[in-house]
Amino acid sequence: MSGQSLVADPYISNAPIAPNAKRLLLAGFMAILVAGVGFSIRSSVFDSLRGSYAFSDTQLGNINGGGMTGFCFGIIVAGLLADELGYGLLVCVAFLSHLLSAVITLAVPATATTASAYQHLFWGSFIFAVANGTLEGVANPLIATLFPHNRTHYLNMLHASWPAGLMIGSGISHVLGDKLGYGWKIQLGLFIVPVVGYGLLFLGQKMPKSEAAEKGLKFSEMFKDVGILGALIACGLLAIFFGQNVFLPLAGLLKIQPSTALDIGYFIGGALLLTVAVMTRFSIGAWVLFVLFIAHGLVGTVELGTDSWIPNTGNSLFGAGSGFYLLTYSSLLMFVLRFGGHFIEKILGLSPIGILLCAAVLACLGLNLLSFSPTLGMALAALTVYALGKAFFWPTMLAVASDRYPKTGAIAISMMGGIGMLAAGLLGGPGLGYANDRFAGKNLPAAYQEFRSNTVSQFLGQGETHGIDPIKLKAAQKAVADNKATEGQKAAVAAYQMGNRQTLRADSAIPFTMAVIYLLLFIYFKSIGGYKAVHLAGTHGDERMIGLPVEPARGVS
Questions:
Q1: C-beta neighbour count of 194 within 10 angstroms
Q2: To which H or E segment does residue 4 belong?
Q3: What is the Cβ-side half-sphere exposure of residue 39, based on CA atoms within 13 angstroms?
Q4: 17: Cβ–Cβ under 8 A, 6 or more apart, which residues?
């Protein structure tokens, strides 16, 4: 690979490599803040959207999923082209995409049918996510390059903007929606304010290239550590997206069978995988990076998928407005923990893999505790445990990939972010929505089937199910709160609440699986002398340092 070798990080200095590094860090912070604000407001107006357009939980999950799957396209394309096109052009594309998403989302009429409103909201969310992904495809490699000796700390600091955005967004919805009664359009439209903010901060700034690009590695060489194995994860998720979200809805218009629509998605995924194989001369890729990609898909599924349902779940279990307190509290903890992640790492003496292992155990425990919490106070205590875990997942995973595979430049961490968000959009949001519908429908007593929804809920080949009618559920929840509910309304609300709890317990299986993966990685790194960051020889370190073991990309070349 151009004769480049890997050397240990000598930790000569924690200083950034550019004089405008702190301004660029703030610009990246503001860019990811936009994503958090929009995500939080969209999740907080679920009840309003359900009541206005009679959406099922599965449909709401798909709309929220569109606000994540689009992220994959933005971040992967940005990661692939960042070193060729430059970060400045990508920021401009993201800025214009954010404005377009606002136009599409806010153009939905109040009298729109369920199907029409769904299309507006899904594609508005999708384009919003494309913009967010493009920005993160800029911010992640940019910060990793600017702070090469302290990536875990600064990437955690960068991604502290996500929970900050969640707090701001939930605060906007609580004040403008719950207290002042403004509609969902006014609430969602306010994400334009931080959009202008990041645009001004990036304006006129010079930004460095990635470490691999500076050393002159070719695009195909950067891709070899990803290889066929890494591309298999991304292409598999893209196949599901194209089949399920693009061609299946168009099956009637194209006059094809649903199974054919799904097959087209698999064909596109296979073609993309073959392209990567040819481009890398059939390099298998680094197996550790492949495992990290799998783990990050699970990270996106549990972290973002769960967060998207926290407001709805909180309001259902503990009364109107409770979701705001739960999301704000967990976001505040994430914000503080991500800023202090560097100190936790030093005090506890844990490597990034050790941090991830502990985080997965805590997240699993926290979700189970939340599912059994009878009061809002106990739910806040359970969320404390959960937040102690989920706070470190996303940025620490990016730091590990950047530390161990510098030859991939911006590609590996951009693909990792795309895999996480695509998994969240395809599996996390819709999967939890489907689980809510399925569990709630099964819990509804046979005597009160009039509360059963007529909308069929489906998810990735799982059996068809019917949840509880959203209009009747909303009326039943109000009647229960006012102590005027009939027995049927009480039964419907109880069934929905039990469904929420069962969904949380099912969700906890994901961080449990992650804990197993991180434990195996922890054992692996122990076997090769411990976890350490590595760099391309002569870039940021001393070429006399002995190279550390790194799983090589394997192929026929």
A1: 23
A2: none
A3: 39
A4: 145, 146, 147, 148, 208, 540
Instruction: State pLDDT tens for residues 418-432.
Output: 888 888 878 887 888
pTM: 0.78
Structural domain includes residue 271: no
Q: How many domains does the chain have?
A: 1
Instruction: Report yes or no on 78 lying in a domain.
Output: yes
pLDDT given for residue 552 in this prediction: 52
Please name the residue that has the structure tokens 């087209």. 264
215: Cα within 13 Å, side-chain hemisphere: 24
Amino acid letter for position 525? F
d(CA 35, CA 26) in angstroms, rounded, equals 15
Indicate the helix (H) or strand (E) that contains 555.
Answer: none
The CATH number assigned to the domain holding 344 equals: 1.20.1250.20
Q: Which residues contact 499 (CB under 8 A, 6 or more apart)?
A: 435, 436, 437, 438, 439, 440, 441, 442, 443, 467
Exposure string for 467-484, b = 16+ CB within 10 A, e = fewer: bbbbebbebbbebbeeee
- Measured distance between the N- and C-terminal CA atoms of the chain, rounded to whole angstroms: 11
Q: How far, in Å, CA of 530 to CA of 549, rounded?
A: 10
Tokens of 422: 């695509």
Residue 551 lies in a domain: no
Q: Are 62 and 122 in contact (CB under 8 A)?
A: yes
Which structural domain range is residue 331 located in?
A: 6-226+280-536
Give 11's pLDDT tier (boundaries 50, 70, 90). very low
233-244 per-residue burial string, b: 16 or more CB within 10 A, e: under 16: bbbbbbbbbbbb
Q: Phi/psi of residue 346, each to 5°?
A: -75, -45
- List all residues 6 or more positions away from 401 whose beta carbon is below 8 Å from its beta carbon: 289, 292, 408, 412, 413, 416
215/335: higher pLDDT: 335
Three-class SS of 11-65: CCCCCCCCCCHHHHHHHHHHHHHHHHHHHHHHHHCHHHHHHHHCCCHHHHHHHHH
Partner residues linked to 285 by β-bridges: 554
Q: Is residue 59 part of a domain?
A: yes
Q: Which two tokens stand for residue 138?
A: 């800029």
What per-residue string of b and e applies to 268-287 under the rule 16 or more CB within 10 Å gives b?
bbeebbeebbeebeebbbbb
Q: Are 281 and 226 in contact (CB under 8 A)?
A: no
Which pLDDT does position 213 carry in this prediction? 61
In the block, tokens 């094809």 appear at 256
Residues 469 and 101: their CA atoms lie apart, in Å, by 29
